[in-house]
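Q: For a teaching session next week I want to show students how multiple molecules come together into a single three-dimensional assembly. I've collected the sequence lines for a complex. Could you give me the predicted structure tokens for the whole thing so I can convert them for display?
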Amino acid sequence: MKRLGGLSLFALAVALLPFIFPDNYYVTVVAVSAGLHAILAISLNLLMGYAGQISLGHAAFFGIGAYTSAVLTTRYGWNPWPSILVGLAFTGTLAYIVARPILKLKGHYLAMATLGLGIIVHIFIVQMGWLTGGPDGMGGIPTLSVFGWTIDSDERWYVAIGVLLVLVIWLALNIIDSRSGRALRALHGSEVAAEMMGINTAATKTGVFVLAALIASVAGSVFAHQQAFVSPDSFSFFFSIELVTMVVLGGMASTYGAVLGAIILTFLPELLVIFEDYEVMIFGGILMGMMIFLPQGLFIGLKDLLHKLVHKRSNKAKQAASQKENNHGVA
Amino acid sequence: MFDQILQFLLTGITVGSTYALVGLGFAIIYNASDVVNFSQGEFVMIGAMSAVALSAGDSGLPLWLAAIGAVMITMLVGMALQRFAIAPARGASVVTTIIITIGASIFLRGVALVVWGKDLFPLPHFSGEDPISIGNATLLPQSIWVMGGAAALVFGAHYFFNHTTLGKAILACSCNKKAASLVGINVGIMLLVAYAMSAALGAMAGILVTPITFTSYDTGVMLGLKGFSAAILGGMGNPMGAVAGGLLLGLIESLSAGLISSGYKDAIGFIVLLLVLFFRPSGLFGKASVERV
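A: Of course. Below is the structure for the complete assembly, covering every listed component.
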């Protein structure tokens, strides 16, 4: 019940936003991409935050989903929905095949391997120009329609992605609280200990890797239909790094933290545009600063800070009380 | 066919020498402070760009003096990175330090963008541009500078860590910081020295290779990735492994660009790297890590 409380609050905020700021560029355009980023960050957070497996190549699965949808709908005239399913099947199979050998690696080796995977997929997208349009990308991707309701305006996309985001949060919260979620957290703590308790760590890690990839693939398909255009730039190494940053910035192992991180990292560049040439420098500086001073991430860091402030006050009260007692004793 | 392969090998060793130097820089910082420094490539860029800036124009310094100045500047940047970004975040998790160094690399790239703009800059070749022919293959004199310079730096670093007190002190810090400080080693200063050395190696790599490849504010990104790949391929924490990894990566790329497809050369490099990791999860020359339970 508790977890649904937070979720309904979040859903309410998402629903009210367009009414508070009607016809606002930041709501209908930036918030929509923030929503997609949040979905990706949540999926990556399941893998990184809960299972403790770093991935610097998550954009690859996002890209495969997007390009499968783009290619099938434009080149072969498929309906978008089966294309999304094919994208899912394709991503899932690939993720399943690479998961075991990759997730055997640890720490920096895992970081390198996932980074390599992301770059390999990106290079293939760029090089297979006959299919993907190469570096120029491909356009003319049709939009989605749900039971006859065509998503053909920014406002409708806001609704669609808002609903999808709430669904993904709900899914993530449920998984984390389930038996498999506990298994994930156990193997994050210690794989050996988790195995001693009868958790099949290899299967659990593979499972969460595939799940994260599947969510990313759906996000990719939706992204392709929403933008009506895809190009390899959207799925580069830099985007993978950005996703990792969203998760870490928001706070690892916290679904709402991942959402917060995604929102901040989507809005920050928009707000920094006014600095023109200085934008890159300021962005790097802010990123560094936040990670140095709040290494636990913003969501957890702020929560701790709040906690500390409250505690300090009550500690002071306690101290004052005990001093009084001492004084009494002396007297 | 043989001539062609000889040509690819020569190119591969030239490129690999740069990767080796960047990889060596990765390994030194990793050994000293357990940090994978994703701004390693920016050291290369800053070294090259500063050398360009210092030697530019009629009133510019002669190339050798500009190079020394550029290395000094980069060493200062390296020490500042350690002092102001890495040291305050002591005890942070692997991922957090990765993001901090990524932040630092974006920051440094941003500074370079503001200072130098987006243009591509060359440096003059050190000793002429007439290619030397070896059989039917050709080699630029600058490539010999790159290979020779890299070899000298690698042997220098090897000597430094194995035969000088300062080098051994840094190694002691990487083994056990507390024990090192108990025998009177100033750990803080050793870390600064390690970052400065790593920055110097990157800067020199940048200055050596810029006459061939040119430089711009964003050349560091790909070089940083390649250096990281080299260090991982050789086995993280093994400096000579990183050098071997760099050379190997350069050779793989150049051979696959020549014999298979230049568009896929980076992909082939990474595929080989992944395959190596699948069969040797700690790299080619790395020690298998043992997890304490």
